[in-house]
Amino acid sequence: MTDSRMKGRVKGLFGGTSPDNEPLDQTHAPPEPDAQNQALKVLILAQRTADEHVAAAQHQANKVRADARGMAEQITRDAQAHADGVRREAGKALSDARAMVAQIARDAQAHADGVRRDAEKVHSDARAKAEEIARDAQAKADGLEREAQQRYQDLVGSLAAKRAALQQQIEALQQYDRDYRAQLRTFMQGQLRALGGDEPPSNAAIEHLGPDDNDQAPTSTGVVA
Known about the structure:
The chain is mainly alpha-helical. About 80% of the residues lie in helices and about 0% in strands. The chain has helices at about 5-15, 35-195, 205. Helix 1 (about 5-15) runs antiparallel to helix 2. The radius of gyration is 79 Å and the shape is rod-shaped.
């Protein structure tokens, strides 16, 4: 019940009208009540009006409370659904991140293994190349050493042969010198005997003979100067 309606009822009590603003039947109207009865009626009416207001307010409050509860429950459900969705998305993102990290780790390990294999292959190839170069160098060094040794032996052999040849020539010249002196002494002795001299020429006289004297000396047999 509204305040205007309650005011209308109060006016009706004091002005001789009904609560619905209709004039009271004067023929059936009781004798004029006193002020105490009118006050009692006003209090009763006010109590009734207050009860109606309280009931309406209580109903409205219950409705507001129910609506608020329903809205709160709906908001709670929506928030829970959103939280569940966020949790699922976070879990999926975490799972994807873990999978990506695991894939990156596998790729990095595979790359590291590949780099290690390449490094080992390069090291092995370098070692094989170094060993091959060392073998070639050793073979060349051995060949050079053999060649030098052969040249040394050839040179020593040729020197020995030349020495032997020179020694033979020296011996031949020495033999030629002895034969020539003997023939020259014999020739001079014959010339002295022919001249009447008996003393043979000395070796010093034979050595001081000049080249012109060779025309008269006998030639050597068997040795060429």
